[in-house]
Every structure is written in C-alpha cells, then in structure tokens.
C-alpha cells in the first residue's frame, strides 16, 4: 500500500497537470499522473491547490552573524516556505568553510540542527591558494564560491584573477561549479571613497557606488575564466539584463555557463523600495531601477535565467537601519517567501508556473548534482509543498527566522499550507512539525 496520495494541480518543469495525482512510498515519489493510483494510508485531496516540487534555495547565509541565526532557524524558515533543501554559503562568521575540517564541523551542526536538507558550498582562503579544494570535494561540498569583491579579508575575501583561474582549474577536475560574487572591486572601492568624501549618505549612494559597469565587468571576467579553464562558471546574483545577455553569449559558444537572479531583484526596485526602505533594502549588487526589474522578468519568462534564489541572511535590525546608507549590511531574510513571491510574480505577469518549477527546483538540483531532489518524478525524494494560491498578507510577526523585519512584511502572497520532506509532513501551515536534526547533510552525486 502507498503511504500517501495527494491530488492537486501538479507544477512540473513542463507544465501544470490539473487534477493530477502524486503517490509516495518509503519517502520516495512512486509516480504522478491523472489516474488515481489507488489505496494509501493517507490521502490529501485539494483540487484547487498547487503541488509544487520542493524548492532548492541555491544561496543561503545561515551563519553570517555569529550567535544569531543558525540552522535551527534558517531551516525552520525554509520548511515554512516550501524550501526542502538549502545550499549554504561558506562565509560563516568565525568559520570560513575552506578545508576538510570546517566542512565536517558544519556538517556536524547540520546533523544536530537542521529541519530540512542542507548542501554546502566551499571556498578558499587566499593564503592557502588551491591546496584545500580537493579535500573539500572529498568532504562533500556541492560547489565552490569565490568573490571578485571583498568585504572582509577573512570572512569574505576577494579572490584576484590569477588565483581565481587557478581555483577554477582545480574545481574543474571535480566537475563541480564555481559560483562567483560579481562586482569589480577597483571600481566599487574607488567610488565608495569618492562618495564618502562628498558626504552623501542618501538611499541612492549605494547604487551609485556599486554601478552596473562594476557588475558587468566582473561577470565578463567570471565567464571568460570559466571558458579558459574549462570550469563550470556561475554568476550567483545577476541584477542586470545585460549580465544575462553575456551569459547567453557564452552558452551559445558552447561553454557551461549559468546565471542566478535573486528574488529581491524580481520583486523590488530602487525607485520605490530602496527609496522608502533605505538600508533595509541594501544588497550587493544593489536592487536596480524599475526598468531593469522588468527586463529581468522578460529574461525569466524566456528561459534565460537558470536559478532564482534568496541570498537569505537574517541580519539584526541594528545592522540594517543606519541613516548612512553605506554603513548598513547587505542582504536580508527571505527564505519563507521565495516560493510564494515568485509564484505570485509569475501569475501577475502570466508567466507559466513551469518556469518557477525549473528555476526554484529542477535547475538548482541539477546544478549542484543533487540527484534525488528538484522534481515530482518517480525515484526522487518526496519533497514538495501544497500551496493555496489565494492571496493573504505575509507577516514577519509569524516568521520562523530570528528576524523582526522583512521587506515582504504585509505583502499579499500565496500560502504554503503544507511542506513534505521525504514524504513526512514537516510544516502544517502554522508550525514546523519535525525535530531539529531531521534534515540531512546531502552531498553531490552523478545526475
């Protein structure tokens, strides 16, 4: 007998199967289709609801602020948002994940704290060169993260071009991808110095120092190093349509290049959100002007965007509310709203929901070689959410993270009514049901 049968509108990478059935046994998907698969220990019939494949958030910073958020909170938020796997960045405050030992320390914390599955990025410390890349691959990282722009010499260091090319060459041996933060350090730092001299602190100051040119030069550098070394090159947060065009040009030339857009670039703009919210809306790269946001939606609808992620980080409010725009930390919490926000945006713009299934689930699972994730497909882990498309206010007061602020507070969004991890109900629309440690550290495998 099957463990679970769900009926609803199944969102797949090729379209929506209306009134479709999803069957589950032993934590795995048995099959999908329009025919009733028969008896099961539990049946969930919700004909108007969306059944969405478990999202894989490709960019999460669970531990950027020490003694604040950890996996207990970030993965609770993920469960509440229909995200069943997070890919955590290596830039933890007090623990740069750059060798076997740091990977193993972080994996041990996942085993004690996580409510959903967690995969890990690795990186390098510039002083080590590429000497510790292979041991991180053996320890189970699913990709490597580097940056063309440094915000801290230890926690978030810049990797200069020559060392970047050496790192790409070493990563290429594993078949994993190299994801890179895409801003040109020389331009940004020169403009920041000039802005500080001028005394300006207004909401436009950040965007005017982190210019489109600084982002585009970095993007071109990343893809060209990938082409030169044979490494899979990935831009982790593109805020510009021109950046996607550059990626497309490398794809046409036959290079394994990919591009990721963060959800806040699709939902917000400088003209409205940044002007009103100031430091709360600061990000690196910045949220751009309204016409740029609309260009990103056109590229998303066309299939040119590979992944949509959050870049989630739950900074405390005092690190986001400085009247000096440049003094605030970059980024913000968004794990709980990634899936409903993108679904709402797709519905509003008449974009096929299959696009959302690709960029939130299938594509990131493939990108990181997480073979059992990302699709409502027989043999995959039974990871999925049930979503009521009726719009209701999302309130930060009900958040599962440690954050007491959000750009999405009071936004009308679809509702995540249930989330399942390997066939187990872990979110019932009100609270997280599974124990900390039920989530697993997952490693890449052949796709």
- Give the DSSP E fraction (strand runs of 2 or more residues): 25-35%
Structural class: alpha/beta
From the N-terminal CA to the C-terminal CA, the straight-line distance is 29 Å
Radius of gyration: 21 Å
Mean pLDDT over the residues: 97
* DSSP helix fraction: 25-40%
According to DSSP, the number of beta strands is 17
Task: Please provide a written account of the structure.
- The protein is α/β, with parallel strands linked by helices and about 450 residues long.
- It has helices at about 70-80, 100-115, 135-140, 160-170, 185-200, 205-210, 210-230, 240-250, 265, 270-275, 290-300, 340-350, 355-365; strands spanning about 1-10, 15-25, 30-35, 40-55, 55-60, 85-90, 90, 95, 115-120, 145, 175-180, 230-235, 255-260, 305-310, 385-395, 410-420, 425.
- The strands form three sheets. An eight-stranded parallel beta sheet has the order 5-6-9-10-11-12-13-14. A seven-stranded mixed beta sheet has the order 3-2-1-4-15-16-17. A two-stranded antiparallel sheet has the order 7-8.
- Helix 4 crosses helix 7 (about 210-230), helix 7 runs parallel beside helix 8 (about 240-250) and helix 12 runs antiparallel to helix 13.
- The radius of gyration is 21 Å and the shape is globular.
